[in-house]
Structures are given as structure tokens and as C-alpha cells.
Design brief:
single chain; 249 residues; alpha/beta; 7-stranded parallel sheet; 7 strands; EC 1.1.1.-; oxidoreductase activity
């Protein structure tokens, strides 16, 4: 039976890979994100997919997107909270010439991009997640466990953990599971805003126990499995998908 799958940040990278994986099963995929043109291009390549542009840091736009989804499709079977980033691709204000203003701007931006987007969309749709059998999934990061050179980003991703755990407790009686998937270094995405220098790439790959970089499909297939009946008894977990890099060398 076809399911309704909502993917935030579904126009590129891991989000698009996840959308492709669900669409492959014949699921109805709804892509939500800020960049209308990017979403439209992605939706055009997926059978039956729909683009729903919205800035997920804006409560009014989130409410409109949720209303559209619920009016068109009713219950949401799978919600994939993928929208995020570490802020390096965002425009910077002149006030950030002040070191403390720069810190405040960086941390505020990362929490808006990674926490507020996920929380607002989830809260808008939580009463419409299919019961039983619904799935709520969050994209975390290895940085939430190990830290990184981008402290605001790792901290923002870590903030998703207690929210997901509380949500799992609240939604569990309805037969809904809630989990976090934590990628490590994943190639073929726009996360770094360009090519990663080869020396840095080698260092990231060397941290894994598998000797390779991650790919969007690795994360997409994990999300797909967690959304399947086979994962019905798995909830309130952080699933590490990073080749063992979280263990360190």
C-alpha cells in the first residue's frame, strides 16, 4: 500500500536520496524546503512527488505546509526531518565583525537550521502521523557525539536527541516510532559548499573502520528500513551510520 512520506530538505543530497528510495516503493513523497526551484526539479524526477516550498523556521509557513499535506493526503505515514546544515552556506551579517556577535549569530543560525526546522514541522504534523505504524525520523550527526570544528552545529544536532526521546515516549502508545540517524562524512552532498580538500577527505575516511566515505544512499536505506515494519520495535535510538567513525581510531 502506498504511504505518504514527507521529507524536509528533500531537494538535494541525503534528503533527495531518501525521497528516491521511498518513491521507488510507490510511496507518495512530499518534498518541503526553502528553495522552490530545487524542490521542483527534484519532484519532477520522482513519480508522483510534490514540491511544497516553505521556510521551516517560519511558524506561519510551516503551518501552511502542514495544512497542505493534511488536506491533500490525510495522515502522514513517514516524516523525515532532514533539513539542516552548519550555516556555512548562509549569508553573514555585517555585525559579525564583532567576535561575540559572530558567535551569537553562528549558534542562533545553527539552532534555527537544525533544531527549529525539525521541531516546528514535527509539532505541526504530530497529530496527523499515522496511528499505528507511523514513523518520525530525524537526521542527526556524528558531530553530536564526537564534536567537530563546528561546535554550534554539533550542539544543535545533539539537541535533537532529547526531543526525539521525549517524542518517542509520547507517541509510542499510538504505535509510532521515533529515531535519529547520525551520518558521518558523506560525499555527494552540498553540505561543504564545494569539494573537500583531498587531505581533509583522506583524514575523514581514515577515521572510519570501513575505509570509505559515506554516500547518500547509505543514509537513505537506513531511513527506509527504520520506516519499514521490520523496525517496528525500534524507537528512541540514535542509529550511527558512519562506518564506525564515532568510535574513533
Amino acid at each position: 500500500m502506498s504511504r505518504t512520506v514527507v521529507v524536509s530538505g528533500g531537494g538535494t543530497g541525503i534528503g533527495l536520496a531518501a525521497a528516491r528510495t521511498f518513491a521507488r516503493d510507490g510511496d507518495q513523497v512530499v518534498l518541503i524546503g526553502r528553495r522552490a526551484e530545487v524542490l521542483e526539479r527534484a519532484a519532477a524526477e520522482l513519480p508522483g512527488a510534490v514540491a511544497c516550498p516553505a521556510d521551516l523556521t517560519d511558524p506561519q509557513q510551516v503551518a501552511r505546509a502542514a495544512h497542505f499535506v493534511c488536506e491533500e493526503y490525510g495522515a502522514v505515514d513517514v516524516l523525515v526531518n532532514n533539513a539542516g546544515g552548519d550555516g556555512r552556506l548562509e549569508a553573514r551579517g555585517a555585525a559579525e565583525d564583532d567576535p561575540l556577535a559572530a558567535v551569537a549569530g553562528d549558534w542562533s543560525l545553527n539552532f534555527r537550521l537544525n533544531v527549529l526546522t525539525a521541531v516546528l514541522l514535527t509539532e505541526a504534523l504530530r497529530d496527523h502521523v499515522a496511528s499505528p505504524g507511523g514513523r518520525v525520523l530525524f537526521l542527526g550527526s556524528i558531530a553530536a557525539l564526537r564534536g567537530s570544528g563546528r561546535n554550534a552545529y554539533g550542539s544543535a544536532k545533539a539537541a535533537l536527541h532529547p526531543y526525539a526521546f521525549s517524542l518517542a515516549r509520547e507517541l509510542g502508545p499510538r504505535g509510532i516510532t521515533v529515531n535519529v540517524v547520525a551520518p558521518g562524512y558523506v560525499e555527494e552532498t552540498g553540505f561543504f559548499g564545494g569539494e573537500v580538500p583531498e587531505e581533509r577527505r583522506r583524514a575523514l575516511v581514515a577515521e572510519t573502520l570501513t575505509g570509505r566515505a559515506g554516500h547518500p544512499g547509505d543514509i537513505a536505506e537506513t531511513l527506509h528500513w527504520l520506516a519499514s515494519p521490520h523496525a517496528d520495535h525500534i524507537t528512541a535510538q540514535v542509529i550511527q551510520v558512519n562506518g564506525g567513525a564515532e568510535r574513533g581510531r
